[in-house]
Fold this sequence. Notes:
Layout: E1 5-10, H1 18-34, E2 36-41, H2 43-46, H3 53-69, E3 79-81, H4 87-96, H5 101-105, H6 108-114, H7 117-122, H8 127-141, E4 147-150, H9 155-172, E5 180-183, H10 217-226, H11 242-255, H12 259-265, H13 271-297, H14 300-329
Amino acid sequence: MNKKRVFSGIQPSGIIHIGNYFGAITQWVKMQDDFDAIFSIVDLHAITVPQDPKKLKENTYKLTAILLACGIDPKKAPLFIQSRISAHAELTWILNTIATIGELERMTQYKEKIQNSKFKIQNFSSVGLFDYPVLMAADILLYNTDVVPVGEDQKQHVELCRTLAKRFNNRFGQTFKVPQIQLRKEAARIMGLDNPKKKMSKSAESSYNYIALADSPDDIKRKIMKAQTDSGKEIKFDENRQGLYNLLMIYKLFSEKTEDEIEKKFSGRGYGDLKKELAELIIEKLKPIQIKYQKLITDKSHLDSILSSGADKVCPIAQKTLKDVKSKIGLI
């Protein structure tokens, strides 16, 4: 029985943190066994907001090394850089001709981003940022994707992808496979250490918001000890006590213990004990990843060969889809 195809991408921008690890990367590692998986470093998405060119290149290598260190196996699932396959940009332009302004204006993530203080200060919002969901649709549709794993914040984008696929098929004949949405488990949702009301963010202004996968033991200890909690004393899983709940969820994810086991472990103990043991647990669990990462990041030629091999594997699939699309709409 043929496995279903899954496509997923991650931007090479900002810091890769434990929220990304549990929210996406660990699921990628599982998917490469359960699905016919294709994974992409989506650098064209990254440049929809201003990027420092040198940092973007370095972040692309860092992300590649992180993914490999976390267990992505390029023999099981191709890993490639989005911009190396020109079909992504070409199909985006074609899909732009059937997408509507109204559909893109309704994208809540775009509206939230342009309200961000950075955009207000810069007074800059690119057409690329507005058009981001159409590029995402092209990414997915190029590879005859069956399943798209996303968080709740990206669900609307995949729904637009499905709409565009159906609209194109209705106008020009069966061309695209209409993908299914697979929502990631919300149990892996990790909030900011400095503000547990908002998700941990790669682009957070304060480094105390996140634990990066490459953070040193001293950095991890300092950040965890400064993490927001509350004035209570009892250590219990209570979603209304957001700061404490976030730390306990992180402990649960890293320890793989049940909530009852964790509550018993810290019964009668204080926040200081929880924070100290949580920091030690994170340091212990990240150490093997960090050792692999340090080895990988020093050999960029090896990383280049992996990314090139991934592009070589997926390019024929993308080109076949694009050729069919062009033929359907009358391009010679």
